[in-house]
What we know:
By secondary structure, this protein is mainly alpha-helical.
Amino acid sequence: MEKEAAAMQKRLQSEVESYQSAQKDFQKLVQQRQILIGQLNENECVMDELNLLKADNKVYKLYGPVLVKDLEESRQNVGKRMEYIKKEVDRTNNNL
């Protein structure tokens, strides 16, 4: 009977450790998702501001040590960044 109790205790401990590991993984995914949502919101705000600008407005992009004027490329970069973040959010949601 003691052997059975020891075996059950060992199995229970293993299950508890497995549960704790899953809980940590879940918390990491939730935290990662929150960060991604924050980044997506920031980029949406930037895109809204860029969409308010007209073609003759000046937007500068930093290329190394040089500032270059390019409104359309800025819009495209922010759009691509938003697509990437959305894909990461979807991937994180699937993992959750």
